[in-house]
Amino acid sequence: MAKRRRRAQQHLGQESSRRRTSGSNTIPTDVYKPGFPMNLFSNIGLFAVIGSIAAVVMVAAAFLTTTGGNETADPLPTPTVTPTPDPNATPTPTPEVSPTPAVKQFTAPESVVDATKFKYEAVVKTSKGEFVIALDVDRAPETVNSFVFLAKQDYFDGITFHRIVSNFVIQSGDPLGTGAGGPGYTMDDEPNEVSNKRGTISMAKRAGATEFGSQWFINLKDNPSLDYTNPGDKFYPFGQVTSGLDVVDAIGRAGSAQGTPTEQVTITDIEIREVAR
C-alpha cells in the first residue's frame, strides 16, 4: 500500500509539474511562422502601406480620366456649319463709298468779265430760296471778276453759310465751312466809297488784312462800322441784293449772337447772268 501511494503521489507530482510548466509565461521556442505570401497578410504595417498606395493610384486615375491630363478641362469645339450656297440667291451689292470731293484750288482767277459790254448779276440759289445780286463791275472790276470766275467754276456749290450773326451779317464762300478755307489765291482790296448798307455784299477777310480770298458776306442791316470811313478794318461792297431780300432775312434767322448757325443753310448754285449794256 505504501508503494502504491508513493507512486500515485509521484505520478500526481509529475502531472502537476508538467501543468505548471505549460502554464508558465515562458515564450515557446518552436512557435509556428507562415511562409510567403501568407506572411504578408500577417504583417499589419505593410498591409496598411500597400492599401494607402492603392488608394492614391485610384484617385490619380480618376482625375486623369476627368481632365484628360490638362489642368483645366478644354471644352469641345463647336462644329461650324457651312451653309450650302443658293444658286438662285440674288447677290448683295457692295455699298459704294462716295469719295470726299477735293477742294478746288487755283493760282489766280481767269479773266471772265467784260465791263465794257456787260453788267453782271448773280442768282444765288440756296436751301432757303434764291436771291439776286447786282454786281458792281464798274467800281470793283477785279473783285467782281474773281467772284464770277469762282461761280462759273461751281466753286460755291454745296457750300454752307458757315457764319450767321443775328441782325448783322450772313457769311459764306468757305469750302471748308470753318472760316479758314479759300481758293488758293488772294486779291487786293479795291477801295471805294460805297457804304455797307442793308443788302450790300462785301468780301470777308482777316482782321487787319488788305486782301481777301473767296469768302463774302451780306449785311442784314446798315453797318457803318465796316465802312471805308472806319479808322480800323474797312470792307468795300461790290454788289447789292436787288430781289429776294426776304430770303436773305430768312437765312439770317438761322443765326446766333456768336455767329454759329442754328440751322444749316446751303448754296446749291450761283448762276451768273450777263446783261448787255
Question: DSSP helix count?
Answer: 5
Secondary-structure class: alpha+beta
Question: Largest beta sheet, briefly?
Answer: 8 strands, antiparallel
Widest sheet: strand ordering: 3-4-8-6-9-2-1-10
Number of beta strands: 10
| pLDDT averaged residue by residue | 79
Principal-axis shape: globular
* Helix content bin: 25-40%
- Helix and strand run: HHHEEHEEEEEEEHE
Classify the oligomer. Answer: single chain
List low-pLDDT spans: 1-32, 59-83
- Looking at CATH, which topology of one domain would you report? Cyclophilin
Strand content: 15-25%
For the record, the CATH class of one domain is Mainly Beta
CATH level-4 homologous superfamily of one domain: Cyclophilin-like
Distance between the termini: 193 Å
Task: Evaluate the radius of gyration.
Answer: 57 Å
Which architecture of one domain does the CATH hierarchy give at level 2? Answer: Beta Barrel
Describe the structure.
Among the domains are: 38-71; 118-276, Cyclophilin-like (Cyclophilin, Beta Barrel). It has 5 helices and 10 strands; from the N terminus they run H-H-H-E-E-H-E-E-E-E-E-E-E-H-E. The chain has helices spanning 2-22, 38-42, 44-67, 141-152, 245-252, and strands spanning 118-126, 129-135, 163-165, 169-172, 187-188, 200-203, 211-212, 216-219, 237-243, 267-276. It starts with a helix and ends with a strand. Mean pLDDT is 79; it is low at 1-32 and 59-83.
